[in-house]
Task: inverse folding
């Protein structure tokens, strides 16, 4: 009787601790990018700053990451509903799109290079390169999570459990986060031009 | 499939909550945390063991950092003395001329830098909040362990890695970083700027990035545990003040350390990739560098956005520990519990909007400075509330003067002395002549250095039985207290006068200036006092390690008659903390000396239900 009463008494809310942890991590990352944004603002305001247009490649990469976040979301919903086939199709596609995003970012930096914007020299180019590279590093973390998700999808038996839903949801949340972060950064760069 | 089941089993074991239903300790698939020497003492995931690891590593660094201060105090107090006897340890950093050994000025700066870095980050951040957050959060909240014991273990090992890298940097031929613990560019951003800016700075940056990872992993765990894993009945407003302090500390760390990392990242780019974020028009050896347009002030903003919350990351856990120790040993409820919590929250909030008071002399617009002055001075209000409440807690208390209590009272004294000079320095008009003098050194050493150490000592003496099942020697503890209290004031009090006379900090020697060489005797006095005070710390270290093995055994579960949950566990609690179900909570943490007409009790544990008569009385008289 006592034991039954106590069952969920030790969790204070319905949020799973791992999910909560991820939210804490993301708020911490927000602070980091807020710091970079304020650096950008203040540095630009202090002058000696070249203005240039973002290369086309950055828009393509935006499309890629938005697409990937949609495919992952559909994959997650399919898994929850037990539609294993759709889940197994969309999860690898998301992974490929994720890798494509990194490649397109790299091509974007090369395009900047062709425009004569280097890490050395005026800080305007370097700031954008460093911030987008740091974002890409966080996307790489998401890709590792996606690789694990793919391994789980193909190596484990086709069974929908609470634990696996949670694991996929964590991946999904983080992937949405890096997607939203990139959209924010792109808008920020555009507004600051 | 079997694999999956195993994973789900792990979840249950990690959180403990479902385990209550199955019986946490009925799973005899071996307590994986305690099975062997390595998993028990080294790669332990038990929060109690991790706490001890943090504490002992912190003590190691405390001794190193303290010894460094003695070496540069020797230089300041006795600049002409022969230091050749240090040559066997310091090697090339002592140059011998005509048989007289002198300390290399470059190494003096390295010592000052390392002393600051080590004490601020390794001892007073990791050693203090790492130790006690780990030890007390699960125990006082009624949790089996942290939300993620694995991340918790990694938090310690990242700290260890960070320490190992910093330790290695001490042995570089070019020396460790020497540009001050704040690592301002250009000294930090140009490898050729000084000998310490080369390899030493590279390792310094690497070490601190790992340190931040450690703090973040720890902080994520602390926050999640506090919000998600409290036992039944432990509402936020029933948490002991220690937990409130650790909780807010973790939030501060989580929001401010990432900003520091972004600053470090940009410094790394300036160092390695030739960017010019913080560099502008610098000539080295007559040659102009290509990097133009950067601003070192921007680094200062990024640094102090962490740097100021950092001082509260250091002092808040000490405040929490002191509140608890004072209340238990005064046998009185803490005075103004809600005001205490609200002032912790207020200090935490304000700490984010005062950073530029470290930069009044860095070219910040005086009108903007005004805003920072006002917010800085407002911090005096919650701080004063806390001091008032601590003193009111002591008033008419039935005080037990044991070592832990003495250090807690000493903390209040130091916090007042150091806090008052903070009001001086918070005013930009006074800060401008005072900045970078020994007045500042005295201020921050008393208020966040020595005071935080006192909070830590209070915690160690008080909770030592919880860690090792034995007591530390109380006589040695009292000796340690009086030696440290008198010693610390003897070291830092005179520095106020030197600072008011304008003696600058960080100088290698004062011999060439008339206004500063009048303090020769003062400097000698400070150096001797520092050596003696350090000697008293050795007493503590000896007492600590001796007591682990031979201290007086703890015979009762609850030796202090405390109300909080950590004293409901067995004396030698295993992983999971409680052998049966976890305790539930029915009242706040400070029911000491309850004498309300329906009962006359010295203390009532949090686990004891409120009787109908008591409730009736309380409703009538308290609400």
Result:
């Amino acid at each position: 009787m006592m034991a039954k009463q106590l069952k969920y008494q030790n969790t204070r809310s319905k949020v799973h601790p791992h999910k909560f942890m991820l939210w804490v991590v993301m708020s911490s990352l927000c602070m980091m990018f807020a710091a970079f944004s304020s650096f950008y603002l203040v540095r630009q305001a202090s002058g000696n700053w070249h203005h240039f247009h973002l290369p086309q490649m950055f828009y393509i990469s935006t499309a890629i990451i938005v697409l990937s976040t949609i495919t992952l979301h559909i994959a997650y919903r399919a898994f929850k509903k037990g539609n294993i086939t759709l889940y197994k199709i969309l999860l690898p596609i998301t992974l490929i799109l994720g890798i494509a995003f990194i490649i397109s970012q790299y091509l974007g930096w090369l395009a900047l290079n062709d425009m004569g914007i280097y890490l050395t020299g005026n800080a305007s180019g370097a700031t954008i390169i460093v911030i987008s590279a740091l974002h890409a590093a966080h996307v790489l973390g998401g890709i590792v999570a996606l690789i694990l998700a793919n391994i789980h999808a193909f190596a484990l038996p086709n069974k929908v459990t609470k634990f696996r839903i949670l694991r996929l949801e964590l991946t999904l949340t983080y992937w949405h986060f890096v997607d939203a972060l990139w959209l924010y950064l792109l808008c920020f760069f555009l507004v600051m031009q | 499939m079997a694999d999956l089941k195993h994973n789900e089993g792990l979840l249950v074991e990690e959180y403990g909550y479902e385990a209550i239903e199955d019986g946490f300790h009925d799973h005899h698939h071996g307590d994986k945390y305690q099975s062997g020497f390595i998993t028990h003492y080294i790669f332990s995931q038990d929060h109690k063991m991790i706490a001890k690891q943090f504490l002992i590593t912190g003590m190691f660094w405390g001794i190193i950092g303290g010894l460094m201060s003695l070496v540069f105090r020797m230089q300041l107090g006795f600049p002409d003395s022969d230091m050749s006897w240090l040559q066997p340890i310091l090697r090339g950093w002592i140059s011998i001329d005509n048989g007289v050994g002198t300390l290399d000025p470059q190494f003096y700066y390295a010592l000052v830098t390392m002393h600051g870095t080590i004490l601020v980050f390794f001892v007073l951040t990791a050693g203090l909040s790492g130790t006690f957050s780990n030890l007390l959060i699960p125990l006082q909240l009624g949790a089996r362990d942290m939300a993620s014991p694995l991340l918790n273990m990694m938090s310690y090992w990242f700290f260890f890695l960070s320490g190992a890298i910093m330790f290695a940097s001490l042995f570089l031929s070019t020396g460790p970083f020497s540009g001050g613990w704040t690592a301002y560019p250009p000294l930090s951003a140009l490898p050729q700027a000084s000998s310490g800016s080369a390899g030493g700075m590279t390792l310094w940056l690497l070490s601190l990035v790992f340190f931040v990872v450690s703090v973040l992993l720890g902080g994520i765990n602390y926050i999640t545990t506090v919000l998600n894993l409290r036992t039944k009945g432990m509402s936020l407003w029933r948490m002991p003040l220690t937990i409130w302090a650790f909780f807010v500390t973790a939030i501060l760390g989580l929001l401010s350390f990432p900003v520091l990392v972004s600053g470090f990242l940009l410094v790394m780019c300036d160092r390695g990739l030739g960017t010019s974020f913080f560099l502008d028009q610098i000539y080295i050896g007559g040659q102009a560098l290509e990097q133009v347009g950067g601003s070192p002030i921007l680094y200062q903003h990024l640094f102090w956005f962490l740097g100021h919350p950092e001082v509260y990351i250091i002092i808040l856990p000490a405040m929490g520990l002191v509140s608890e120790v004072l209340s238990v040993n005064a046998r009185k409820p803490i005075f103004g519990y809600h005001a205490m919590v609200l002032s912790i929250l207020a200090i935490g909030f304000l700490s984010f909007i005062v950073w530029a008071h470290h930069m009044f002399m860095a070219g910040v617009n005086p009108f903007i400075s005004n805003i920072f002055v006002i917010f800085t001075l407002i911090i005096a209000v919650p701080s004063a509330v806390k001091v008032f409440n601590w003193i009111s807690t002591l008033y008419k208390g039935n005080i037990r003067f044991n070592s832990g209590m003495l250090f807690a009272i000493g903390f209040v004294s130091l916090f007042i002395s150091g806090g008052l000079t903070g009001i001086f320095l918070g005013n930009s008009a006074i800060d401008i002549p005072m900045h970078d003098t020994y007045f500042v050194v005295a201020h921050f050493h008393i208020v966040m250095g020595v005071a935080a150490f006192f909070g830590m000592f209070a915690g160690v003496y008080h909770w030592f039985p919880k860690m090792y099942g034995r007591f530390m020697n109380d006589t040695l503890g009292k000796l340690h207290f009086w030696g440290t209290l008198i010693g610390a004031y003897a070291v830092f009090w005179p520095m106020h006068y030197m600072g008011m006379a304008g003696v600058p900090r960080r100088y290698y020697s004062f011999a060439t200036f008339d206004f500063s060489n009048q303090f020769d005797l003062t400097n000698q006095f400070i150096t001797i006092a520092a050596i003696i005070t350090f000697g008293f710390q050795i007493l503590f270290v000896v007492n600590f390690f001796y007591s682990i093995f031979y201290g007086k055994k703890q015979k009762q579960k609850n030796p202090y008659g405390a109300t909080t949950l950590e004293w409901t566990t067995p004396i030698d609690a295993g992983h999971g903390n409680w052998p049966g179900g976890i305790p539930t909570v029915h009242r706040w943490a400070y029911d000491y000396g309850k004498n309300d007409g329906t009962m006359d009790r010295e203390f009532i544990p949090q686990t004891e239900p409120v009787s109908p008569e008591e409730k009736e009385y309380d409703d009538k008289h308290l609400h």
Remarks:
- The domain at 46-284+291-553 of chain B is CATH 1.20.210.10 (Cytochrome C Oxidase; Chain A).
- The longest strand of chain B covers residues 94-97.
- Chain B has two domains: 46-284+291-553, 565-622.
